[in-house]
Write a structure and sequence with these properties.
It is a single chain. The chain has 204 residues and is α/β, with parallel strands linked by helices. The chain has one domain (3-203): TIM Barrel (Alpha-Beta Barrel), CATH 3.20.20.70. 39% of the residues lie in helices and 17% in strands. The chain contains 9 helices and 8 strands. The strands form 2 sheets. The chain has a 4-stranded parallel β-sheet with strand order 3-2-1-8. α2 links the parallel β1 and β2. α2 (25-35) packs across α3 and α2 (25-35) packs parallel to α9 (189-200). It is globular, with a radius of gyration of 16 Å. The relative contact order is 0.18.
């Protein structure tokens, strides 16, 4: 099993996190881990993101990755911050080659057959399907997966606690990305822990 597959199989839901304040990093990570979600994707959409990654990597049990990695500079900054895996919204050749060369577990975004073929050419076999709900949803993913036998996916974008089970029931899907688990603003630790527990229970 590859390292990225092991990460994808750790939890049925990977929380997609947009955190504005690094002071919120530790309580959010601790609440998610306590609820049973250990794999955390910190998106590089805020000025605090790299500090958030640094802080979250100190939380016992957390597997912290960087999301919204767009280019080689983002990749280097994420690695320097201690990210344990990388997620990108799409796949370009420069980023793909740099990520593969770095050895970091890499989950690039794909939305069509060309994206997947480009990833396969780089030796990749695990992809984010993004944006999942507006790229044809589950029927599109199943149709896409057909020609690519061993490829596995983490659909992300527009997925909720209610719709996640349908995605997770699909054979090529190992996990889903979920932005619903953590709300914006000051973290409500009890609510996050509860939401994480509900999401983690989808594995059973």
């Amino acid at each position: 099993m590859t390292r990225i597959e092991a990460i994808m199989r750790t939890s049925p839901v990977i929380p997609v996190l947009v955190i504005e304040d690094a002071a919120h990093a530790r309580p959010i990570a601790e609440a998610l881990v306590a609820g049973g979600l250990r794999v955390l994707e910190v998106t590089l959409r805020t000025a605090a993101a790299l500090d958030v990654i640094r802080e979250m990597t100190t939380v016992e049990g957390a597997i912290v990755g960087a999301g919204t990695v767009l280019n080689e500079a983002d990749l280097r900054a994420s690695l320097d911050a201690g990210a344990e895996f990388i997620v990108s919204p799409g796949l370009t050749e420069p980023l793909g080659k740099a990520a593969v060369a770095s050895g970091i577990p890499f989950l690039p975004g794909t939305a069509n057959a060309g994206d997947i073929m480009r990833g396969l050419d780089l030796g990749l076999g695990h992809f984010k399907f993004f944006p999942a709900s507006t790229s044809g949803g589950l029927p599109a993913l199943k149709a896409l997966a057909g020609p690519f036998g061993g490829v596995k996916f983490c659909p992300t974008g527009g997925i909720s606690l209610e719709t996640a089970p349908d995605w997770l029931a699909a054979e090529p899907v190992l996990c889903v990305g979920g932005s619903w688990v953590v709300g914006k603003g000051v973290p409500n630790v009890a609510a996050i822990t509860k939401a994480a527990a509900q999401a983690a229970a989808l594995a059973s």
